[in-house]
Amino acid sequence: GRRVRALIEPIGFETSSLRHLAEAAEAIEAVGGDGRFGLVHDTFQHCIAGGGPICPAHTAIVHISGIPNARVPLDSRLDAHRVFVDDADRCGTVAQIRNLLAAGYDGAFSFECTSAALTALPDLKGAIADSFAHIDAMTR
Question: Which of 4, 44, 90, 129 has its CB surrounded by the most CB atoms within 10 Å?
Fold first, then answer.
């Protein structure tokens, strides 16, 4: 039969019950859940949770996005403003990607950009390509 692997995504908001990757990894280990549970490392959520240890051995996928608006504090209010990653990103997304790769992570990366403004971009395909090129150049 099919094997289902449950993915757990710590949400960095102050009000969240599970904010940190390390806490989720400890729980996976405590129940002998290797192979049955994995982590979603979300660069925005990790940033607003205050960072902390990354857990590449448990990470199943990485959600990436950028927050460029320097006028607003990095917190849950910005979840709807997540855009493609570029030089203005305040979440340290490129550094998080570098750290994951250096620690042996070789899984998938997925954009999780939630800003409604992205759908109005005149060249959405170009914006996506530009962000991928930026990330690629910065993580070599």
Answer: 44
